[in-house]
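Tutorial sheet, problem 5. The three components below are modelled jointly, 304 residues in total.
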Amino acid sequence: MPELPEVETTVNDLNQKVRNRTFVDVWTDFEKMIKKPPGFEKFKRDIQGKTILKVRRRAKNILFDLSQDMVLLVHQKLTGHFLYGRWKFEGGIWRSELKGNLAAPINRFIHLVFFLDNGDQIALSDLRKFAKAELWSAKELEGSKEMRELGCEPMEEEFTFEKFKECLLSRRGKIKQILMDQNAIAGIGNIYSDEILWKAKVHPCSRLDSLDDEQLKAIYKSAKSILASAIKLRGTTVLSNVEEYRGVSGGRGGYQARLKVYRRDGLSCPVCGGKVERLKMNGRSWHFCPKCQKLKGKGCAKSK
DNA sequence: CGATTCCCCTGATAGC
DNA sequence: TGCTATCAGGGGAATC
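Model answer (structure tokens):
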């Protein structure tokens, strides 16, 4: 699912394809995707004629900077992903145009399609229908609570170890939860926080205030290196039959082959050979190696 | 005010 | 075969 590396890959892909393109029209079969009132009709009216100046990322949000100081914000949530190409709506399904003799790839989960002035399209596929798209004025978005409160960007150069500690300041509780808190550090979700903590040899239930400088440094370094290599490999496309994250040309990411603990419960830890465990916390699955990631102090209360 | 729970969705899978 | 229950999960809102 799209976390920082997947969003970053999508943004890079989109920048290569759609800079200076102008929105001509937009289609949806799921108007609730446009969360911001008054809804789809105004969204459609307002986006027509706007030119894409640049695409960028903030936390897990994709931001299209548009002409006339407008911004298109898309959050992909769990299964949302953009596809770029030319699609045809036929028999209630979007099908991409034939390439040679290949059968036309179809995608039953496309719920939003932007039509561009060169005849190409940007489609948003989203099996779970959790994604959202909104149109903001740049000023309004900048001042909005959801943007203002976002935490540090871990891939920025200024993200030093000192900065990292500052970002965690005043937070308390379990380190895994803090790593996933978008208002502390932005862009990290369930997959990469599992992997970062494994590499740092820190138990996900460790309280922040129980960690010493050495452990914090390990987390900081792991975060930087894991996110960087995941970006290099174009993100993670989780091994499952569920239609999930893809690059905008439809290709899978490559990082899933590097996962050490995420969704590997029952398998052996590549470092110590011990069994990877899964822990249910707040309706989420946490994965870790109990042998490599020793817990100091109070643990997780059992939860269903 | 902080911490927890619910809810939005739907496809794959397991159990009967 | 076909039904039902369970799981996956980001983040905002409601509730404790």
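Marking note: DSSP finds eight helices and 13 strands in chain A. Full credit if you identified this.
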